[in-house]
Amino acid sequence: MMAFVRQVLVIMSKDLRAELRTKEAINASLSFALVVLLLFSFAFDPSEETTREISGGLLWIVFAFAGTLLLNRSFARELENDCLDALISAPISGAALFLGKALANYILVLAVELIALPLFGVFYNVRWTSQFWQLMMVIALATWGMTVTGTMFSALTVNIRLREVMLPILNFPILIPALLGAMQLTSALVAGKPITADNDAWLKMLIGFDVMYTAVSVVLVETVLVGG
Amino acid sequence: MNAVGVEGVWKFYGDYPALRNVELSAAPGACLALIGRNGAGKTTLLRTIAGFSRPGKGKITIFGNSPRDTETRRLMGFIGHGISVYDELSALENLTLFGKLYGLADPKKSALEWLERTGLERVKDGLVREFSRGMRQRLAVARAFLHGPKVLLLDEPFTALDDRAIAVLQRLLREALADGKTIVMSTHQLREALELATHVALLNRGQVAFHGPRTAEMVADPGWVYARYGEG
């Protein structure tokens, strides 16, 4: 078990170190998130109540697309110099490889989201901190779901020439339940309403989504990486 | 027990059979040179032996076990067409990373030792993206040998190497053979390969056209196998 955890951490730190050296994907993702938030802030009047009502949806659409830019690089990075061959031939399980990559992606996507969130508050004149910890919990859960499915599809599409297009096409339909839950909860929390018995079904759904797709991905990743 | 066993292996790309009923073996300590024209199936066979893809039919074994077994992977070292090291990391970081993945007792010490053996100790902290092609190739060789594999699978190992890298690789391969390790290598550089090989297999359109010990005729005339068993 300790060896497994060590392998996960080795892969995670390798991916983070490689990304932080080049900053290719994180710069692209962050710039994209900021530009889209800025453009939408011109399109909608921040003083309108309806703007606040759609804020959860808007935020998660930005997070999903910005996150895709990071997730696309996850396995594509391994194609340069045929590094994927070296990882596949190393004596580590597909699950360790997958979880290491998913954790690195999770940290990077969360970083982009946490930078974009205060700017969202400024651009849309929204006080989003009134339910801060609950909002952080929803972001953490939904981002893990998005990262797990995104990392899995990044592995699945790594050898496809149009992988940048294929990843969102495959990933977003699967993500609909998680995004729907995250949007509903985020809208309520940004409006200052805590999670109650009325809407905690969305929270349970987010947890269920994370558990289910993490388990499925861990089981299937070896088959995905070592094709027939 | 054979170090490498290939039993009735077929590999299909769509409907096209890239490998057709391939039967090969390499005993411990043997050096098998896989030769054949472009598209004969050498790379496909090596990648299948390495466990990067599964055969459509048939069986691959490394010391009697599947190449996908975790413990079996610890026994194998692979050099493919790419160098399989990260441009964004330094030479030392790359080798330490793979040392950790292979569970070496002291990954950094092993990494430094192999950097010295491949003449890269002076640039150990340099990023790989700043390396010359020859230096990158020597680092790839160090990565493949780092964990002391018992079976070395080498796909065109001498291609695109500079003189120094060829000398380093030939020295390491000779040491590996003297140490009882098994080598399977595909190559077009017949002269270099036949100097090391104990056995030769000629692949022709995915089939084994010849498999047997290296003979004096082959060393004297590297084209002899092609002339006798190949397409001429």
CATH superfamily of the largest domain in chain B: P-loop containing nucleotide triphosphate hydrolases
Major pleated sheet of chain A = none
What's the domain count of chain B? 2
Sheet-strand content of chain A, in percent, reads under 5%
Number of strands of chain B: 9
Taken as a percent bin, the fraction of beta residues of chain B is 25-35%
Average of pLDDT of chain B: 90
Helix vs. strand class of chain B: alpha/beta
CATH topology of the largest domain in chain B: Rossmann fold
User: Judging from the principal axes of the Cα atoms, what is the shape of chain A?
Assistant: globular
Oligomer classification: heterodimer
The assigned CATH architecture of the largest domain in chain B is 3-Layer(aba) Sandwich
> Helical content of chain B, roughly?
25-40%
Q: What can be said about the biggest beta sheet of chain B?
A: 6 strands, mixed
Note the topology.
The complex is a heterodimer of chains A (about 230) and B (about 230).
Chain A: H1 2-22, H2 24-43, H3 49-53, H4 55-76, H5 83-89, H6 94-123, H7 132-156, H8 163-190, H9 200-225
Helix pairs in contact in A: 1-6, 2-4, 2-6, 4-6, 4-7, 4-8, 6-7, 6-9, 7-8, 7-9, 8-9
Chain B: E1 4-13, E2 16-26, E3 31-35, H1 42-49, E4 57-62, H2 70-73, E5 76-79, H3 91-101, H4 107-117, H5 133-145, E6 151-155, H6 163-178, E7 182-186, H7 190-196, E8 199-204, E9 207-213, H8 216-220, H9 224-229
